[in-house]
């Protein structure tokens, strides 16, 4: 029996064309990331590397076996890599490569497109990372102007640091290290942000599950920056 072809050309043939036998780049993209759970695993690494256990916790419907298989495939394709965090963490994490991080604008456009459907249900489970990526997506950059802020987010016990500057919102894990941000938002569930940020309701109208610390006028300016695209009509 001859050896398997492990050359770049051989591997390319095993992936491109395996489902559709179609040379279109969009078809190839689906062959790279179109398996069930793959894009959600990528999403959960978009703000930084994650431990295997963190990925399992974020996606409770995903089995350990399937997660292991998907991570292995993503590594083989060059979308994900293993990294070792320095002390005191000294942990192994899975992180997106530079090419893998290039999927964020793709996911943003998919998100903008999909939420226009009347069938979209925002009350389904949402992870903290998914919420923050949504905020990066739905930020109306033309409204930011010269506004610059440090923002702390505590969502379901997870901490993130946000920086609004130059018309963009960057977010990184570890917002508990922000001793005195300009604004801090805290809620027990990611969905508690939605009626305030996108529905433009006061926290008191939503059971006060989202708490806001900081100058109320500054908070109002920040909240006004986020808007969902209009729903499709018949």
UniProtKB/TrEMBL annotation:
<protein>
    <submittedName>
        <fullName>Transcriptional regulator</fullName>
    </submittedName>
</protein>
<dbReference type="InterPro" id="IPR036390">
    <property type="entry name" value="WH_DNA-bd_sf"/>
</dbReference>
<dbReference type="InterPro" id="IPR011991">
    <property type="entry name" value="ArsR-like_HTH"/>
</dbReference>
<keyword id="KW-0238">DNA-binding</keyword>
<dbReference type="GO" id="GO:0006355">
    <property type="term" value="P:regulation of DNA-templated transcription"/>
</dbReference>
<keyword id="KW-0804">Transcription</keyword>
<dbReference type="InterPro" id="IPR002577">
    <property type="entry name" value="HTH_HxlR"/>
</dbReference>
<dbReference type="Pfam" id="PF01638">
    <property type="entry name" value="HxlR"/>
</dbReference>
<dbReference type="GO" id="GO:0003677">
    <property type="term" value="F:DNA binding"/>
</dbReference>
<dbReference type="InterPro" id="IPR036527">
    <property type="entry name" value="SCP2_sterol-bd_dom_sf"/>
</dbReference>
<feature type="domain" description="HTH hxlR-type">
    <location>
        <begin position="24"/>
        <end position="122"/>
    </location>
</feature>
<keyword id="KW-0805">Transcription regulation</keyword>
<dbReference type="InterPro" id="IPR036388">
    <property type="entry name" value="WH-like_DNA-bd_sf"/>
</dbReference>
